[in-house]
Design goal:
single chain; 21 helices; elongated
Amino acid sequence: MSTEKELAKAPWLNEVDTRAVMAALEAGGGKARFVGGSVRNALLGEPVMDIDIATDETPERASALLTAKGIKVVPTGFSHGTVTAVTPTRHFEITTLRVDVKTDGRRADVAFTGDWLADAQRRDFTMNALYADADGAVHDPLGEGRADLKARRVRFIGEPEARIREDYLRILRFFRIHAWYGQGEPDAAGLKACADLREGLRQLSGERVRDELLKTAAADNAGAAFRQMAAAGILSVVLPEASRLDRFEKLADIEANQLFTSDPVLRLASMLDLDEKGVVALAERLRLSNKDRDRISKALNDKTKIVSYLSMREIRRALYVMGAGLFKDRVMLGWANDRKGHNNFQWRALIAMADSWTKPEFMLTGEMVKAAGVPEGPEIGRVWREVEEWWIDADFIDDEFSIIERLKAVVQATVY
């Protein structure tokens, strides 16, 4: 255990709202400490997003202390000891120290405790069982977390099988945490336990599996993580549709080398080779949003010709017809299929063109079509679309006279 104030200067720890929440929790004589991801990331020099706090106060008492200082409290998981402090700048998840009484692989019945070591022993990985006081002093109750963190070694606390049987989602978390914070090969004992107990993943909800898969897919080392999951037989349980890990790894490599922000939904799509019905079935099982379902389906099934050597005219047409979002998705998937890999800068140029593209405005209106002699009803839409197709083929000609002349020709030839 170390009590050196290593995190005393951490910006997130010194934010006004953070200090106010910690002061409120300790106002009654109890103790509060930061725990888990915020401490781990701060020690690694990684960005800190969420701030979780552990306290020896009961959830009722913690709520009362926070409310007394004017801090809004939401009872997000009261029976499990968790409340959320809502401030203008952050939400803080605050959990009472606890031990598991009974678990079924998905949820646990807990009892509250004042024992920091007992609380640490029920957590998942040693590097996540590090705590920090409000003054930045770091505590390692297990005596193993600091060494594992320094070595970037992701290890289950105690017996891996026991930790996994408490919550089978920890199998996927093992690969996710290793992808983000580990180095080298995964811990052998942990990997074996994950493989041996993989069938337990079938009892998890689609939402929990989806979230872990997307979080893992976003990591820089996601390619290795998914290969390891496949080798351990885990991917065949949670994502048997992942038949294109080769394309996924190439896409991740392109994003890393071209300094693109990782796109977990597109990375998920790149693993798949599904028709529209297949995407719908996957979306239902993983509870994907309609937006993500439709994006994946279009990226995999759109038939527009997309190659690295498109002409400028072809690029403009594709962008107009597809929209920049789908165009870029198709370009990235095409790039990932290209044997030249991330060094093919023709694909990079297509992405740059899409980012700078402004959609041209088709100046023909329904009223103009009606004024040309087209009767009310579906004929107006049909004629409008036919003139638009000509305009697209004419490379978006910016000439209202020519558009009107084309409208007249279409009306004279097709409207009776």
